[in-house]
């Protein structure tokens, strides 16, 4: 496809008498379009699917579905052979539960799995306490139902949150059962 577009553009610019300024503009538009087409073709999905190994799968599923409001949209099993061939676990099979903020094909997947063992990283009080992925940000339409659910279930709001941000938005910070920080951002209606 890209080769055909390139051929067409070069053929047109060579056959049509264009003033140098228009030829330069045409070339610039062609370059931008080429970069856009190339960048768009490198990814088959427009979202990231994130896998999170948790200590207790049921506790984490409960937290993400009942406190955060995610929906379980499915799951899958990776058997011993598959986990070894892919290099994920070296042969230990595992089950993955897939959640999303909404059941939409382009929504980010939050994949939870557990090997029934305790975490080996330090307990985190702040995002700088460990390396790797430390937090996720979820944008919401109204923070009130989230804050109410979290408080009703004794999930501590961290820092001095809710904190007001610009544009009428507020910020709430909590941690999931394994210590991943979750930023919730939205208005307090």
Word description of this protein:
- This protein has 189 residues and is α/β, with parallel strands linked by helices.
- The chain folds into 3 domains: 40 residues; 74 residues, 2,3-Dihydroxybiphenyl 1,2-Dioxygenase, domain 1 (Roll), CATH 3.10.180; 64 residues, Signal recognition particle alu RNA binding heterodimer, srp9/1.
- The protein is 33% helix and 24% strand.
- It has 5 helices and 8 strands, in the order H-H-E-H-E-H-E-E-E-H-E-E-E.
- The protein has a 4-stranded mixed beta sheet. It has a 4-stranded mixed beta sheet with strand order 5-8-7-6, with no helix packed on it.
- Strand 7 and strand 8 form a beta hairpin.
- Helix 1 packs antiparallel against helix 2.
- The longest helix is centred in the N-terminal third of the chain and has 22 residues.
- The chain is globular and about 50 Å long.
Secondary-structure-derived class:
alpha/beta
Domain count: 3
**Overall pLDDT level:** 84
Number of helical elements: 5
CATH topology name of the largest domain, in short, is 2,3-Dihydroxybiphenyl 1,2-Dioxygenase, domain 1
Topology, element by element:
Elements: H1 2-15, H2 20-41, E1 49-54, H3 57-67, E2 71-78, H4 80-86, E3 94-100, E4 109-114, E5 135-139, H5 144-152, E6 163-164, E7 170-175, E8 181-186
Helix pairs in contact: 1-2
